[in-house]
Amino acid sequence: MIKLKAYAKLNLNLHIIPRPLKNGLYPVKFINCQLDLHDNLFFERIKNKIQVISDSSQLAKTEDNLIYKAAILLKKNVNNPSLGAKIRLEKNIPVKAGLAGGSSDAAAAIKGLAKLWQVNLDRSKLNKLAKELGKDVHYCLQGGMCQIECDGSKVIPLSFKLPKFWLVIIIPNKKKPSTEWMYNNLDVNKIGKNLSKLEKIKQAIRFKDKKNILENLYNDFESLATNCCLEIISIKNDLKDNGALKTVLAGSGLAMVGFFNEEKKAKATFNNLKVRYKNILWTETI
Q1: Which of 40, 62, 100, 265 could tie 90 with a disulfide, CB 3.0–4.6 Å?
Q2: Which is catalytic among the residues 105, 136, 220, 238?
Q3: Which is nearest to 285 in space by CA: 119, 113, 169, 129?
Q4: Last residue of some domain: 157, 183, 203?
């Protein structure tokens, strides 16, 4: 049996450029890191078929599940019908929260199955698979501290590491609009206006300057997400009232992330707010 961890990602600084690419998508520029929050995937070899089982009731039906899609896609590319696998998922990353749980699971599925089936995948093959599965899969295959550009498919590893922060993450009860809907409803007059923050946060990370890291946390989706879900306002206020140094929206939402310098303060905030919010957790950056 093979076991792999699929880590949640967090954008520290997300900018959308209001000039569509030839494919119609908005170009992006942002900085990603990973969190010490992960799903666990277990792989066993069986013949011919792909089975995906999970302890989560929120797992998408088989044909829509990214783990299953990744497995079928890889099997098709290998062109060996006799290959098969039983994949068991232990789900810990909140679903549809902006933390790339599904994309991270898909990336882990590709890596785990490549090892199980003894398939060699170079970068070009990995990129081809990621292109079929979703933009976040490009980053999740790489992991670590990276700058993301173009339509999300260009991943540039950064040589420096984020200093440690502890986080409290709260997901509103409201159903999240699709990422496609979020992009389609952006106000082009309000995005791409704070690109200077990207270089500032990179420099702050390079020199372990926590103050300026916090000052340059940013997400172009936050205004739209707040308009869609007014609960985000109270979540941000509750995090700040309980000691969060700064907050930022995760991905296209709807999770709101509060940053703390000390583990005990993050735990205290979690304990204070878990009575009010059902979907709350605490973790740390890695």
Answers
A1: 40
A2: 136
A3: 169
A4: 157
pTM value? 0.94
Q: Is 243 marked as binding a ligand? A: no
Identify the active-site residue in 9, 69, 75, 197.
9
- For 209, the domain range is 166-284
Lowest mean pLDDT among 58-67, 125-134, 163-172: 58-67
Condensed to tens digits (0 to 9), the pLDDT of residues 186-228 reads: 999 999 999 999 999 999 999 999 999 999 999 999 999 999 9
The Cα–Cα gap between 190 and 196 comes to 15
103 lies in the same domain as 172: no
Q: Looking at residue 172, which CATH number applies to its domain? A: 3.30.70.890
Establish whether 159 is an annotated binding residue.
Answer: no
Could you give the C-alpha distances from 219 to 40, 117, 159, 190, in angstroms and in order? 28, 39, 23, 11
Q: Is 100 annotated as a binding residue?
A: yes
Does 194 lie in the same domain as 89?
no
For the question of residue 9 being annotated catalytic, the response is: yes
Q: How many domains does the chain have?
A: 2
Active-site residue, 190 included: no
